[in-house]
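Researcher: Here's a chain I'd like modeled. Treat it as a single chain, no partners, no ligands.
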Amino acid sequence: MSVPLALLARAFLIAALGYLLVCLYVFIRQRAMLYHPQAFSEEQMLQRAHEAGMSRWLDKSGKPLGWMAGGDADEIPVVIFQGNAGNALDRLFLIERLRKAGARGRIHVADYPGYGSAPGKPTQRSLTEMAQRALDAMPGSALVVGESLGTGVAAQGATSRPDKVRGLILITPFESMASAAAYHYPWLPVRALLLDRFDSAAALKNFTNPVAIIVADDDETTPPDGARRLFAALTGSKKLFDVKNAGHNEAASNLTDSEWREIWKFVAPAL
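Model: Modeled as a single isolated chain. Structure tokens:
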């Protein structure tokens, strides 16, 4: 082998090894890259909840499920699954928008494992089990709101507990975590590396209750095209709300009060 070819082969091997090391790093660190919990003690969370006018949400056995804003027990209850950062008590703005939209029932925000004071670690399995527990605690069916990562959690809950979900509001959703990851890392084999796939399109393919999808046109986190593909994959009653000039964290707040009321009337017709 000539010297130039030997050098080229060596450079190729070094580059290939470097690429494999990057893949290994991403594989090992992927959950730290996906989940960004903010942890507090139970005492700190209770104090924050008290200041926000919320209380502990418990299941029938007395185990914590999350946090609850009071409302009329005879009205449609709401369950919120948050995005990947912060904790459940950071979603007060969303509760306010839902109230203005027409929500008169109790509004619940589920705790993710590892977030706030909740024990455990966040994974697709642990978040799905949490969603199932949350929906099982509902006396009847609830309207479910998912935000970003929470749209994947909501989809998993809806496919496993369809009788508990009367409608879905999905804010800046993704078609699947694999497609969203491939958008951000097109140079990596993310579909082979991914542990938590949250395939919402597959989960909701047979869901027939109303689904409202809110898309931010300038979303830098969950690509708008993925949200639109999810919308196209739905076979039941559905509506798309396109928020112009809004980034990932602005979609819910940039909708007008009248648009929120339209969403509420679509997904939660009167009992």
